[in-house]
Each structure stands twice: as C-alpha cells, then as structure tokens.
Amino acid sequence: MAWQRSRTVTSFLWALVLLVAVAAAHPAFAASISYGNFGPVPPGVTFQDVRESSGTDPVPLYGPPAPISVGLDFDPANFVATASGHAQDITDGQLNLTLTSGPGVSISSLNLFESGDFTLAGSGTSATQVLAGAILRVTVTQINGVDVTPIILSPTNVSVSFNLAANPGVVQPWSLGTGLNIAGQLGPDQRATQLEVVIDNQLLAFSECGSLAFIAKKDFGIQVGTVVPEASTVLLLLGALVVLPSAARRAR
Questions:
Q1: Which residues pair with 129 in a beta bridge?
Q2: Is 85 left (phi over 0), alpha (psi -120 to 50) or beta?
Q3: Is residue 119 a contact partner of residue 173, using CB atoms and an 8 Å limit?
Q4: 124-167 confidence digits (pLDDT tens)
Q5: What confidence category does residue 250 fall into, taking pLDDT thresholds of 50, 70 and 90?
Q6: For residue 195, what are the CA distances in angstroms to 54, 93, 114, 166?
Q7: Cα torsion angle, 11, 174, 34, 66, sign
Q8: Which site among 19, 47, 106, 148 is 20 to 30 Å from 70 CA-CA?
Q9: Phi and psi at residue 240, in whole multiples of 5°?
Q10: Does residue 73 come out as left (phi exceeding 0), alpha (psi in the -120 to 50 range) or beta?
Q11: Is 30 exposed, middle or buried (0-12, 13-18, 19+ CB in 10 A)?
Q12: Can you point out the beta strands (E) in 42-163?
C-alpha cells in the first residue's frame, strides 16, 4: 500500500540521517542512571529495573518516572538538541526496563507518547531542520507465568521532522507516538506476562550559517494494555472447581 511504502521510505531516511549525525556527534558519555522499581500499577503491572542511559550526553535526560494508572510518566528537563552557525547536534537517550504482570493478568500492548517544542529561526533553507525519533523493542521472556526462550517481537519506530523553509517560528509544538500489539504477535493461547523493553529516543538539530535549530522533549509516557479475565469467566472457573469434586463423589 502507498502509506506503507511512504513509512518505509521515511524510516530509511530517518536511519540515514541518524547515521550521519552520529558520525559527527560529540564524544560519547556512556552514562546511566537506575531508578529502581515502580508499581504494581492497576490492574497488576510492575515496572522493574527502570534505567536510562545515553551515549551522547550527561544523564538524566528523561528524569525519574512517576507511576500513573496506565503506566509511567516522565517529565524530561534536559532532553534537547540545539545547533547554530552550520553546526549540528544529536541527543540520544535509551530506556530499559522489565515489565511483569500479576496473577491472572497478561500484557497485550505497549505504547509510548512524547511531545515537546522546537524553534527554527534565522536565514537559511530546508537544510536547517530538527528531527525527533523513537524505536520501541520488546522481548517476551515469560508466557502464561512460565519462563520461556526469549521471543523477540518485531520492533516499531516513528519519527517527525521540521525545517526552516516550511516551519519557521519559535517554540512550536511537536508530538509523536507508536506502539506494539504484543498479543497480535503471539499465538492465540500465548499470554505475555513478562517483557524486556528497550526504547531508543533521538533528537537531532542541523543548522546553516545564520540559522538556529532547537528541539526539546518535554513529556514522555509509557502506556500498558492488559487483559484481565472477565468476571463471568472467573465465576465459571470457580463453579467448575465446585462441580468437579461433587461429580467425583457421586461417581464413587
């Protein structure tokens, strides 16, 4: 389909731009921070060993998370990329965590949302630009409460870009989001109960002589979709536990 071809081309161009930017980026910091465990978040999901790292900048970039009703919320304060006078900048951040569901609960989907603002000013062309991108990777390590050989799901990625020719201005909003249908990538009887999650985020800024490019991430969130047995199903199971022993006694 046309939109699929367009997304493939966009992903390819994003990867190409990122490789060029990484080659010219400032020296790596290889810094990391561990935030520990959070939850359980209703209906019974725990975020374990939440940690962030960066190969380009000092951390924190995301900052410490706060549990919310559907996941985790971050309020980044230092996640920015800025360039002027024909310079370029890349800020790369990574989040790692283990996601575990409680008894009777399975994880059906995982989504991320982020937003911020950008500024493109001065004199220049479309070569003065800013970009934001995210890649979500998930590995299933537990099915139906039992440890399994890791199942690597197909990752998802998304990006947005703006340039001085088309989007000049100061403090303009941007946002993006993407997600994985975990249940859809597993078998009908396979319910994911533990995941290893890796999220890669990048902000890039490219400038020309006489121009300014700036982009900042101001909000970031992870949302978890879960499946909980319906009350009617639970009642049927409880009824079966009562009926089966009675039937066994009658048979004896």
A1: 163, 206
A2: left
A3: no
A4: 999 999 999 999 999 999 999 999 999 999 999 999 999 999 99
A5: low
A6: 22, 20, 21, 41
A7: negative
A8: 148
A9: -65, -35
A10: beta
A11: exposed
A12: 45-54, 66-68, 71-74, 80-84, 88-101, 106-122, 129-143, 146-152, 156-163
CA nearest to 180, candidates 207, 202, 151: 151
Q: In the chain, where are the structural domains located?
A: 2-251
Q: Which residues of 224-238 are buried (b: 16+ CB within 10 A; e: fewer)?
A: bbbbeeeeeeeeeee
Three-class SS string for 182-241? HHHHCCCCCCEEEEEEEEEEEEEEECCCCEEEEEEEEEEEEEEEEECCCHHHHHHHHHHH
How many CB atoms are located within 10 Å of the residue 243 CB? 10
- pTM flag (> 0.85): no
Per-residue pLDDT, 31: 85
Nearest 10 degrees: CA dihedral of 217, 50, 177, 16? Answer: 70
CB crowding 35-73: b at 16 or more within 10 Å, else e? beebbebeeebbbeebebbbebbebbbbbebebeebbbe
